[in-house]
Amino acid sequence: MALRSLYVEPEVTPETVDWPALEFHDVFRIHRSGPVETVALRGLDVRIERGEFVAVWGPSGSGKSTFLALAGGLDRPTAGEVRAFGDPLSGLSEAELARYRAHTLAMVFQSDNLWSALSAEENVRVALALADRDEARLRARSALDAFGLARRYAHPVHALSGGEQQRVAIAAAAAREARLVLADEPTGELDSFNERAVLDGFGRLRRDFGSTVVVVSHSDVVARAADRVIEIRDGRAVR
Ligand code: ADP
User: Fold this and answer.
1) When you count CB atoms within 10 A of the terminal residue's CB, does the N or C end of the chain come out lower?
2) 74 pocket-lining for ligand 1 (C-beta < 6 Å)
3) What is the pTM for the complete model shown?
């Protein structure tokens, strides 16, 4: 009895449980258009731990974009469950999903992630819309510094190279402290030098900012840069 009374049950809260960043359990996504059904995902199982840098890799048509839309809460599965940091996304209201996209997530697309008429610094500050002016300036500049863009603060984005633009988008994710960064073919329009620099940026985002990074791509170079590869074929994970 004495021992029992000394024992304090550890408090278990969503914050103390180390949920994976992303889990897909037996996920199906079937598109129906009249009598035609296309099965984009057929029983996809995926588990991505916090702080991983993972490439989701596969040929065109294998289901990568569908995976990304579900992970980003932009689409819902036909069957199965998608969880982010332990929360089933299907259980979230539209307002909660909007908060998930605005606060937890950052998405980086192949191009056009930025406001092209604004400078690099202004773009990162837009991502920090809620921070106060001085704090936003400091955070924007220190994030741009971290991704090798210290000489580019004031450059309008349209005057930057494609690789620099993608690094500004990564810096914006870092400045926002996005816990999960989802990228869709982010190096698809870059030469190999810029591809390398952008992939280094994702590695740094994971290492120095603690983000979980998931890059969807059909590129072997991207697959080699990641810590782990999840290969998708015909809507299923094959490794
Ligand atoms: P990937 O990104 O690997 O190229 P997708 O996820 O875009 O693959 O597509 C997977 C499969 O689902 C493909 O056969 C594609 O044609 C189909 N698909 C994707 N989106 C739709 C849609 N909205 N309507 C019908 N079929 C779709």
Assistant:
1) N
2) no
3) 0.88
Tokens of 139: 């955070």
Which amino acid residue places its CA nearest to atom 6 of ligand 1?
A: 63
Sheet holding 105-108, edge to edge: 105-108, 180-184, 212-217, 53-57, 228-233, 236-237
Report yes or no: 129 and 159 within 8 Å, Cβ to Cβ.
no
- The response to whether residue 40 sits with its C-beta less than 6 Å from ligand 1 reads yes
207 in Cβ contact with 41 (< 8 Å): no
Helix (H) / strand (E) element for 26: namely strand 22-33
* Strand 228-233, strand 53-57: pairing: parallel
Note the pLDDT tens digit of each residue in 127-139: 887 667 788 888 9
- Protein residue with its CA nearest to atom 13 in ligand 1: 61
SS3 content of the chain, % helix, strand, coil (to 5): 40, 25, 35
Q: How far is the centre of ligand 1, averaged over its atoms, from the C-alpha of 220 (Å)? A: 21
Answer yes or no: is the C-beta of 139 below 6 A from any ligand 1 atom: no
Cα–ligand 1 centroid distance for 152 (angstroms): 37
pLDDT single digits (tens) 167-213: 999 999 999 999 999 999 999 999 999 999 999 999 999 999 999 99
